[in-house]
Amino acid sequence: MVAVDLLHKKEGVAKSLLEYFHNHYHEQGTYFIALYPFRPDFYKQMGYGYGTKMNRDRVRPAQSPKGPSKGHITFLTLEDINKIVDFYNKTAALTHGLMIRNLKGFSRSLKQPGNYTIGYVENGEVKGYPGFSLFRRYFPGKRHHHS
User: Fold this and answer.
1) Which of 43, 48, 62, 84 is deepest in the core (most CB within 10 A)?
2) Cα-Cα-Cα-Cα dihedral sign, residues 129, 73, 111, 106
């Protein structure tokens, strides 16, 4: 993620951050990186290309399939992080456009106040999960602030 304080916009800070990032990983032998762009034209000027379309599904609870019980449904926490990553990476290996991810990416979302993950867990293994945030629904336009 790249972020610049509002008071320091238009000072070349984002460009400097990305140049440092590129050099750091190039020196480590990494030649392929991906970035979720807020403005694709800005990153295109820095040599990034356009990737595959990213879809974000928005599902209402009423659209969930009904089953005989909720016995396999549970809230997932940081304690379940390895199970979540295992499920995701198994799915990614079979799905065009998904990239293998690590613990760090998933733990950030699980730690974020107002974010929740519910999993379908069978025999101790996550078989599916949605992540969601109640914060944005009840406080539209507001964001969490970090110090």
Assistant:
1) 84
2) negative
Q: Does residue 137 carry a pLDDT above 90?
A: no
**Domains in the chain, CATH or no CATH each:** 6-44 (no CATH), 61-138 (3.40.630.30)
Q: Residue 141: its pLDDT value, please?
A: 52
